[in-house]
Specification:
Two copies of one chain form a homodimer. By secondary structure, chain A is α+β, with helices and mostly antiparallel strands. The first copy, chain A, has eight helices and eleven strands. In chain A, the strands form three sheets. A four-stranded antiparallel β-sheet of chain A has the order 1-8-3-6. In chain A, strands 2-7-4-5 form a four-stranded antiparallel β-sheet. In chain A, a hairpin with a 5-residue loop joins strand 4 and strand 5. Chains A and B meet through helix 3 and helix 5 of A and helix 3 and helix 5 of B. Chain A binds a DNA duplex through helix 8.
DNA sequence: CCGTTTTCGTTGAAAATTCAACATAAAATA
DNA sequence: TATTTTATGTTGAATTTTCAACGAAAACGG
C-alpha cells in the first residue's frame, strides 16, 4: 500500500492529510487496490456498491446505454479523481451507470461507510477526510451543471460552443478535451456525423481551429 | 425562530437531531429567515452566496436562461428541501443559475462555513448535521443523473417517457408532477407545443392518461 | 359572476437532427 | 513495413424538432 502514498498526495480527497496519517488511515479504512485492462468494466449498471473508487492511474468513462444502443457519457474519470461517491453515500440499490476503463486502470476502493462514520481507532484526520469528500460531492454537482448547461442547448452548434466555452473558461483559449469525436458526441448527446460537420463549419468560419482533441477558440 | 422547529423536524437536513438541540444549534449557526413573494428572485445568476437555503414553505425553481431566451429548469425546490448547497460548499464565485419563487416562499439561510466547521460552542449534533448535508449532496447528484437520463434521449417522446418512468418508479403508476406544460418542456429541454402534441399522441395510443399535472401510466 | 390573463392543444412550414453509407486518414497490430 | 482496424469527415434522404400563430379551456382577480 505504501507505494501508492505518493500518488494519493495529489488526490483532493486526501488533501491536508500528511503521509504518515494517510498511511495509517488507509489500513483503518480497509482500502483495497484493483487493476483493470482496457475496456474492462470497473462497475456495471444494475449492481450495488457502497465503495468509493479512487482512480490512481488510467482513465475511465461513466456511461449509460439505452435499449436503442445510444450511449450517453456522463463524465470521464482521470487520475486522482473519485467516482461512485454519490451512489455509495446514498446507498443506491441499483447503479444506473457503468464505469468502463478507457485504458489500463489502477483503482483504490474504500467502503463509504468507513469514511462517513469515524472509527474507534480515532484517526486524527478523519474529519478532514469527511470535509474533503463533501467538497468533492459539491464539485460533482457543479460538473453536472456544466454538462446540463451544454446539452440543454437546442442545436449541435450551440451545444458544442457551450461546451468549448466552459473548457476555455477553465483552461484558457487553447485546450485539449478528454474525448474523441464519438465520445464528445455521446457527452453532448448528439449525432457524431452532425458534430463532425459542425466542427468543420466552425473551422471554415474561423471560429476555431482543432487538431484531434486539441482545440483553440479564436 | 422557535415556531419553525416543527417544520424543520421534517427536513432531512436535520434528521436525527432533537428539538432542543436543533433550537440551540440554529442560534449557533446564525440561521436567518426571509420571505419572498410569487415570482421573486431568491438568488440570481452571477451572484456569489456561501449560504445554504432551506425551503420552509412554498416552492421555487432553479433555472438558467440563455441569450436566446431559452429557459432551462434544472430542478424544483419544495418544502423541507435544501438548495445552493453545492455552490456554497464549493465556494463558487458566480452562481450559474437563478432561483425563482413559484409562489410565496419562506426560506431559512445558514452560512455553509458554519455547517462545515464545527464551532467552539461544541454543539453535540454538529457531526450529524454534516453527515446529513453529505447525504443531501449525494441525493442532488442522483437527481441530476435522473434529469440527464431523461434529457439525453433523442426524441421528445422518449424524453417524456423516460421522465414519467422515473416518476412512476418513485411514486407508483399514478402520480403528479411538479411542472405545468411549459415547465415540463423546459425541464426536458424540448419545445412546449411539441411536448403537448406528444402527450396527446400517447393518450390516444392508450399509453397514459393525464389531467393537468396528474399522470397515470397504463 | 364576468372579464382578463394564462395555460393548453393543434397545425403547418421551416430548420435541424438523425441515420446510413461511403471515402479517407490515422492508428494499432502482426 | 504491410495489413487491418478504428476514427473522422462528408453527403443526401428521412425523421423530428422548432417556431409562429391561433382558438379553446381553465385559472385568476376584482
Amino acid at each position: 500500500m505504501e507505494k501508492y502514498i505518493k500518488i494519493l498526495e495529489n488526490c483532493p480527497l486526501f488533501e491536508g492529510i500528511d503521509d504518515d496519517s494517510l498511511s495509517r488511515m488507509l489500513v483503518c479504512l480497509g482500502a483495497k487496490i484493483k487493476t483493470y485492462g482496457k475496456k474492462a468494466m470497473i462497475m456495471s449498471e444494475g449492481m450495488a456498491s457502497g465503495e468509493v473508487g479512487i482512480m490512481l492511474s488510467g482513465r475511465a468513462q461513466i456511461t449509460q446505454t439505452d435499449y436503442y444502443g445510444n450511449r450517453n457519457i456522463f463524465s470521464k474519470v482521470g487520475p486522482y479523481e473519485v467516482f461512485n461517491e454519490a451512489f455509495a453515500c446514498a446507498q443506491t440499490k441499483s447503479l444506473p451507470v457503468s464505469i468502463v476503463a478507457d485504458e489500463p486502470c489502477c483503482v483504490m476502493f474504500i467502503d463509504c461507510d468507513h469514511i462517513l462514520h469515524t472509527c474507534s481507532n480515532n484517526c486524527g484526520f478523519h474529519q478532514q477526510l469527511i470535509y474533503n469528500l463533501m467538497k468533492d460531492l459539491a464539485m460533482k454537482t457543479i460538473r453536472f451543471h456544466e454538462k446540463i448547461e451544454a446539452t440543454s442547448k437546442r442545436t449541435t452548434r450551440e451545444k458544442l460552443l457551450a461546451y468549448l466555452n466552459i473548457c476555455a473558461k477553465k483552461q484558457g483559449n487553447t485546450f485539449s478535451i478528454p474525448f474523441d469525436r464519438q465520445e464528445l458526441a455521446d457527452y453532448l448527446e448528439v449525432d457524431r456525423s452532425g458534430l463532425s460537420a459542425e466542427i468543420s463549419k466552425l473551422r471554415k468560419e474561423g471560429v476555431l481551429t482543432c487538431r484531434k482533441n486539441q482545440f483553440s477558440l479564436l
